[in-house]
UniProtKB/TrEMBL annotation, chain A:
This is Quaternary amine transport ATP-binding protein. Belongs to the ABC transporter superfamily. It comes from the Bacteria. NCBIfam families: proV. The complex is probably composed of two ATP-binding proteins, two transmembrane proteins and a solute-binding protein. One of its GO terms (molecular function) is ATP hydrolysis activity. It comes from Acididesulfobacillus acetoxydans. Transmembrane segments: none annotated. Its main location: membrane.
TrEMBL record, chain B:
Coiled coil: none annotated. Belongs to the binding-protein-dependent transport system permease family. The keyword Chaperone does not apply. The lineage of its organism: Bacteria, Bacillati, Bacillota, Clostridia, Eubacteriales. It is found in: Cell membrane; Membrane. Residues 21-201 form the ABC transmembrane type-1 domain. This is Binding-protein-dependent transport system inner membrane component. GO terms for biological process: glycine betaine transport; transmembrane transport. Keywords: Membrane, Transmembrane, Transmembrane helix, Transport. It is a multi-pass membrane protein.
Length: 368, 218
C-alpha cells in the first residue's frame, strides 16, 4: 500500500512497475528478475491494472471488458465469456444480467467492480491499483474495500495499492509504504506505523489524523481511570454525599456485601433530597444506576452507553462485579483532543505499558 | 411552364442528364476517396507525432479559405491544364480540412483514462488504434467526411467551368442559352445528390456508432 500526499510519486511508482513510465535510473525486479527483460506489452499483460477513473472501454460489453486482456492474449471467445461469468459471480453480479450490458449503463460502484474484475481475468500474480476507490462515495468505497479484502482471501494476489486515504491504508494493507517528495519515508505494517512513526512527517501525516478514529476503538481497560470512589451499600445518603464532596467525585459506586458492584449514584440526583431523605441507606435510594461496562468494551461502546443513559461517566466492572475503574466523558474528550492535537498521544496514558493490544486486536464487545 | 419544360427536358435528354450525373459522381468520388485514403492516415500519424498537426491543419485551412473559383483558376495558372485533373485536385484540397480536423479531434478526444487503462492492460500501439481509438472516434470522423462530401458535391458543379463536365456543364449551358429548364436539369440532380449524401451519411454515422455509446444519450 503506497500512501503519501499528492504529488509525492505514488502513482508514478506504480506506473514504473508496468512501464507506463520508464525509471530514469535504477532497476525494478519482479521475483528477483530485472523486469527490463520483459517487453513492456508482455509485462503489462502479466500484471493487473486498476485506475481511479476505471477506464472501461465504452463500446465493449461488460463481458468483453472483463476479458479484454484474455482477448489480447488470444483466448477464444468461449473461454473469455466463461471467465467473465465466473468473475461476475465472484462479486455477486448476475452474469445473465450484466454480461451484455455496456459500461454506461452501470453505476460508478458497479463500474469499478468491473474494473477490478478486469484486472483479475488473466490471473496475474501482481495487481496494481491506483486509487481504485478514490472517486466513489464513502459508503460505496467501504463496501468495495470489504469486497476486495474478501476477494483477496480467495485469490491471494500481491496487490500494490496507491491511496492517499489513511483509513483505507489501515483497513487494507499488510504493509504500508509512506512516500514524500519521491522518497520512501517508512515501510512497515499499519500497527508499527501507528505505534512507531519513523519521523515527524509520518507522525503528522498518519498517526495524528488516524488516532481520533483509532482512539474510540481502544478497549476501555486501556484508558479508564483506575480510582473509583466506592461506598458500602449500608451507608446513608448523607455519608455518600459527604464522601463525594470530600473526594471531589460526581459519582459514587455502591458495593454490596461481597464488595462487588451494586450500582452507582450521581451527585446531581442528590441535590433535591431533603434532610430526612439523606438518612436513608444508599441502596434504597430510587435513583441508583445499575449500568456498568466490562473492561473489554471499546471506548465507543462506553460513549454509547453514557449517551443512552444520559450520564457523564460509567463504571467499569469485571464479569464477577469487581469494580476496576470508570470512564468519563471528560476523559474521552481529553483523549480525542490529544489524538487530534499537537503530538502523538500514546493511546493508553493510564496504563501505557500495554498500549499494544489496544491497537492490535479488534475488541469484540457486544454493541450497546 | 418551367416545370413542364424541365420535365420535358429530362424525358427527351435523359441520356445527357444521366451522363452528367455519372460524371458528377466521379468528380465527387475520386477526390473524396483520395482524401479519405490520404488525410485519415496522415492525421492519425499526426495524433502520434503531434508536431505534425499544426502543419496539416494549417495547410488544409488555407486551402479551404481560398475562394473555390480562385482555387480552380490558380491551378490552371500554375500549369495543371484543364479538365478532370485540376478539378479533382481542387476538390481534394477543399475536402481536406473537415476530414483532418474531425479525425484529429475524434482520436484525440478519446478520454485519456480509457487509453491509460488499455495501455496498462498491454495493448500494442496498433491495438490501441484499432480496438480503442478508431471505434470511439469513428462517429466524429464520419461527421467530418459528411460535411466534406456535401461541400464537394456543390463545389464539383464549378468543375464544368474548366471543362471537367458533370452537372455543372448543364447549368452553364442553360445559363448561356438563357433556358431555365436546362439550368434546373443540372441543379435539381445536384441538389438531390447533396441531400441524399447528407441523409445517407447521417444514417451511416448512427449505424457506425458502437452500441455502448448510443445508449449514453438517454
Amino acid at each position: 500500500m503506497l500512501i503519501g500526499p499528492s504529488g509525492c510519486g505514488k502513482s508514478t511508482t506504480l506506473r514504473m512497475i508496468n512501464r507506463l513510465v520508464e525509471p530514469s535510473s535504477g532497476t525494478i525486479e519482479i521475483d528477483g528478475q530485472d523486469y527490463e527483460k520483459y517487453h513492456p506489452v508482455e509485462l503489462r499483460r502479466r500484471l493487473g491494472y486498476v485506475i481511479q477513473q476505471v477506464g472501461l472501454i465504452p463500446h465493449l460489453t461488460i463481458g468483453e471488458n472483463i476479458s479484454f486482456v484474455l482477448r489480447l492474449k488470444g483466448v477464444k471467445e468461449n473461454g473469455r465469456r466463461a471467465r467473465a461469468r465466473e468473475l461476475l459471480e465472484l462479486v455477486e453480479m448476475k452474469p445473465d444480467l450484466f454480461m451484455d450490458r455496456y459500461p454506461s449503463e452501470l453505476s460508478g460502484g458497479q463500474q469499478q467492480r468491473i474494473g477490478v474484475l478486469r484486472a483479475l481475468a488473466h490471473d496475474p500474480d501482481i495487481i496494481l491499483m491506483d486509487e481504485p476507490f478514490g472517486s466513489l462515495d464513502p459508503i460505496m468505497r467501504e463496501q468495495l474495500q470489504d469486497e476486495l479484502k474478501r476477494l483477496q482471501l480467495n485469490v491471494q494476489k500481491t496487490i500494490i495499492f496507491v491511496t492517499h486515504d489513511m483509513d483505507e491504508a489501515i483497513r487494507m494493507a499488510d504493509r504500508i509504504v509512506i512516500m514524500k517528495e519521491g522518497r520512501i519515508v517508512q515501510v512497515a505494517s499499519p500497527h508499527v506505523i501507528l505505534q512507531a512513526p519513523s519521523d515527524d512527517f509520518v507522525a503528522n501525516f498518519f498517526v495524528r489524523q488516524r488516532l481520533a478514529w483509532q482512539t474510540i476503538k481502544i478497549p476501555v481497560r486501556e484508558i479508564m481511570s483506575r480510582s473509583m470512589a466506592t461506598i458500602p451499600h449500608q451507608s446513608s445518603l448523607a455519608h455518600c454525599l459527604e464522601e463525594m464532596l470530600r473526594q471531589g467525585s460526581d459519582q459514587m459506586v455502591i458495593l454490596n456485601e461481597h464488595d462487588k458492584f451494586e450500582g452507582f449514584i450521581c451527585l446531581e440526583d442528590l441535590k433535591g433530597v431533603s434532610e430526612q431523605g439523606l438518612e436513608m441507606p444508599v441502596n434504597v435510594f430510587p435513583k441508583v444506576y445499575k449500568e456498568a461496562i466490562p473492561p473489554e468494551f471499546t471506548l465507543l461502546n462506553g460513549i454509547q452507553a453514557m449517551i443512552i443513559h444520559k450520564i457523564n461517566a460509567i463504571p467499569v466492572t469485571e464479569s464477577d462485579g469487581t469494580v476496576v475503574g470508570s470512564v468519563s466523558l471528560s476523559r474521552v474528550m481529553e483523549l480525542l483532543r490529544g489524538a487530534a492535537g499537537t503530538s502523538v498521544v500514546a493511546p493508553a496514558t493510564g496504563g501505557g505499558e500495554n498500549g499494544d493490544p489496544a491497537l492490535e486486536k479488534e475488541v469484540k464487545g457486544p454493541e450497546c | 411552364m418551367l416545370i413542364t419544360e424541365t420535365i420535358r427536358f429530362f424525358v427527351l435528354h435523359h441520356d445527357q442528364v444521366l451522363k452528367a450525373t455519372v460524371q458528377h459522381l466521379y468528380l465527387v468520388a475520386i477526390p473524396m476517396v483520395l482524401c479519405i485514403l490520404i488525410a485519415v492516415p496522415l492525421t492519425i500519424l499526426a495524433t502520434r507525432i503531434q508536431k505534425l498537426y499544426p502543419w496539416l491543419i494549417g495547410f488544409s485551412n488555407a486551402m479551404q479559405t481560398i475562394p473555390s473559383l480562385a482555387l480552380l483558376a490558380l491551378l490552371i495558372a500554375i500549369g495543371s491544364g484543364i479538365g478532370l485533373v485540376p478539378t479533382v485536385v481542387a476538390l481534394f484540397l477543399y475536402a481536406l480540412m473537415p476530414i483532418i480536423r474531425n479525425t484529429f479531434v475524434g482520436i484525440n478526444g478519446v478520454s485519456p483514462e480509457i487509453k491509460d487503462a488499455a495501455m496498462g492492460m498491454g495493448v500494442t500501439n496498433w491495438q490501441l488504434l484499432w480496438m480503442i481509438e478508431l471505434p470511439l472516434a469513428l462517429k466524429v470522423i464520419i461527421a467530418g467526411i459528411r460535411s466534406a462530401l456535401v461541400g464537394t458535391i456543390g463545389f464539383a458543379t464549378l468543375g464544368a467551368l474548366i471543362g471537367a463536365g458533370g452537372l455543372g456543364s448543364l447549368i452553364l449551358r442553360g445559363l448561356s442559352m438563357a433556358s431555365n429548364d436546362i439550368v434546373l436539369a443540372g441543379t435539381l440532380p445536384a441538389m438531390l445528390m447533396a441531400f441524399l449524401a447528407e441523409f445517407l451519411m447521417s444514417r451511416l454515422e448512427i449505424l457506425l456508432t458502437p452500441r455502448g455509446l448510443r445508449t449514453r444519450k438517454g
